[in-house]
Design the sequence.
């Protein structure tokens, strides 16, 4: 098996034994990018020179004592909404087409300190608004399992890069499912940590009360390793929680004896792809065979989650994106006759259609006379959705659901109707509203050969139980070992 | 709820966006549909339910008022589309 197809922990073991070098892994990954990224288009920026430089530095540092951290010398891709000193960070938007950050996001600084090698910046939906990467201001990423299909979104570039062997692991961000849904579409593991578990400093803000950074990896152990590296309180993000960070790899046990799994009846709905339903129900049976018990639970406000999310997320976005004005950074439109015109032209030319639509929705929801009817109402329903989970977690340890109602859809299939696109996030959105952690892991394939994702949700700051169940399931199945033929 | 083209113009002005005539009509139609969908929440009685702006129970996170390293003026201005004498430069606003 080529280096680029191996997991982070496998490569780490080989680095430890000095069987291989970071340079050889990095060259394998960069070679893979050269041979397949023309088809997949996972990257906006490939940082090959920087990557080779970091690999060399890592090899030098490892020469005596071997790797000092599990990530040292490992090529990692970053979603292009994570600020990287000196490396273009576009958020897949034309308005940031020339933005070279003068600082690192906290997660980037942490991975850098661990000795990780950054191989590039991954494509995404513009400002993380979308479920397919079709809203990227540059190009659409292709699903490595079927090039005519979307890789999911918004972290579609990160997920496709992991699936295609164009990196060993990646970081994404998840506001309404943007790590988990693309992970499901691409047959890889995607973990959205509890809100507050990981610092958001240096993550280009979309909806600040919902955004969270997390790993996209080839297996559950890799996700635990990356979470170990990026979690923790950060003085630069007042919403990062001051809660001890356990060693998440210690939670990876093969058995789930005594674990109580809730199956929410509202998540098995009409219109759901029968192949998805069958695979997820089969996965739950596997967990039962491994010693877990299942019980049906109810999350009665599930049907309101998408509407609630699109009120709150667009409102927060309209405020967060006010900063793009063509003055401080980013692209300024030519030919403005005065300052107001400069704002209007820079923003209207710089933002894509979906971003403008969401800014309009959010501005409307927050505008005088409508605030109570939309924004406040949305916040109240958010309370009810959160209470649903609090209530369910009184009787169960985790909740298992499909990650998405269907496998990856065709490029262009939903792009004409924004509302249809929004509904593809129906199973992931509530999790962000409640702030709880969730993971998507591969649990099968459709007859057409497309990956299906199982979503496991846990209590606030209980990523350990989520990881334990995910790991037990993964070790009992072979799905995570499948690689696409590109 | 159906919104009017005038409302779309008004909101666009608030958001510092401008749309060509044709686009305005399409947007009016799309926004009306999405807002109607959002109004499914009105079917839910939320009397007395406290709003959640944030899931964590934290407020007023403070730190000691100690100076720490920050960006230099040069670094902070490096991405500016136009600058002069250590400032961002914009079109003249006072005649």
Sequence:
């Amino acid at each position: 098996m080529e280096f680029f197809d191996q997991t982070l922990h496998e490569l780490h073991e080989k680095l430890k034994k000095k069987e291989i070098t970071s340079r050889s892994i990095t060259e394998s990954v960069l070679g893979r990018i050269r041979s397949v990224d023309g088809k997949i288009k996972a990257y906006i920026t490939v940082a090959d020179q920087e990557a080779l430089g970091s690999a060399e530095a890592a090899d030098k540092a490892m020469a005596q004592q071997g790797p000092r951290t599990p990530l040292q010398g490992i090529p990692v891709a970053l979603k292009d909404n994570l600020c990287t000193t000196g490396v273009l960070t576009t958020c897949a938007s034309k308005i940031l087409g020339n933005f070279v950050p003068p600082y690192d996001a906290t997660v980037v600084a942490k991975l850098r300190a661990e000795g990780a090698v950054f191989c590039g910046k991954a494509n995404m939906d513009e400002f993380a608004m979308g479920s397919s990467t079709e809203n990227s201001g540059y190009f659409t990423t292709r699903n490595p399992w079927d090039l005519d299909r979307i890789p999911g979104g918004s972290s579609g570039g990160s997920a496709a890069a992991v699936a295609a062997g164009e990196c060993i692991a990646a970081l994404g961000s998840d506001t309404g499912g943007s790590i988990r849904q693309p992970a499901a579409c691409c047959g890889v593991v995607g973990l959205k940590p509890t809100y507050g578990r990981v610092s958001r400093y240096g993550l280009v803000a979309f909806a600040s009360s919902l955004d969270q950074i997390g790993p996209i990896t080839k297996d559950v152990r890799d996700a635990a390793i990356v979470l170990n590296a990026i979690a923790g309180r950060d003085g630069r993000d007042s919403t990062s929680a001051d809660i001890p960070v356990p060693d998440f790899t210690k939670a990876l046990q093969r058995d789930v004896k005594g674990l109580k799994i809730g199956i929410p009846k509202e998540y098995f709905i009409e219109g759901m792809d029968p192949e998805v339903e069958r695979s997820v129900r089969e996965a739950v049976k596997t967990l039962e065979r491994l010693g877990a018990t299942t019980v049906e639970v109810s999350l009665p406000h599930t049907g309101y989650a998408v509407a609630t999310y699109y009120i709150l997320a667009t409102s927060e976005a309209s405020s967060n994106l006010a900063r793009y004005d063509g003055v401080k950074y980013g692209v300024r439109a030519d030919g403005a006759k005065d300052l107001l015109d400069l704002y209007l032209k820079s923003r209207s030319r710089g933002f894509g259609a979906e971003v403008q639509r969401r800014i309009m929705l959010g501005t409307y929801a927050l505008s005088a006379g409508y605030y109570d009817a939309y924004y406040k109402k949305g916040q109240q329903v958010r309370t009810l959705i959160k209470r649903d989970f609090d209530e369910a977690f009184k009787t169960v340890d985790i909740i298992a659901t499909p990650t998405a109602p269907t496998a990856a859809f065709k490029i262009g299939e939903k792009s004409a109707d924004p509302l249809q696109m929004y509904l593809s996030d129906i199973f992931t959105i509530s999790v962000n509203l409640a702030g709880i952690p969730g993971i998507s892991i591969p649990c099968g394939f459709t007859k057409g050969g497309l990956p299906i994702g199982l979503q496991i949700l846990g209590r606030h700051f209980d990523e350990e139980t989520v990881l334990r169940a995910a790991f037990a399931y993964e070790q009992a199945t072979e799905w995570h070992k499948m690689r696409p033929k590109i | 709820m159906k919104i009017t083209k005038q409302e779309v113009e008004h909101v666009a002005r608030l958001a510092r966006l401008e749309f060509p005539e044709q686009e305005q009509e399409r947007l009016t139609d799309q926004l009306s549909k999405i807002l109607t969908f959002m109004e499914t929440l009105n079917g839910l009685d939320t009397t007395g339910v406290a709003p959640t702006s944030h899931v964590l129970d934290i407020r007023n996170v403070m730190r000691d008022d100690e100076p720490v390293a920050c960006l230099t003026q040069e670094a902070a201005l490096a991405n500016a589309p136009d600058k002069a004498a250590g400032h961002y430069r914009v079109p003249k606003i006072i005649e």
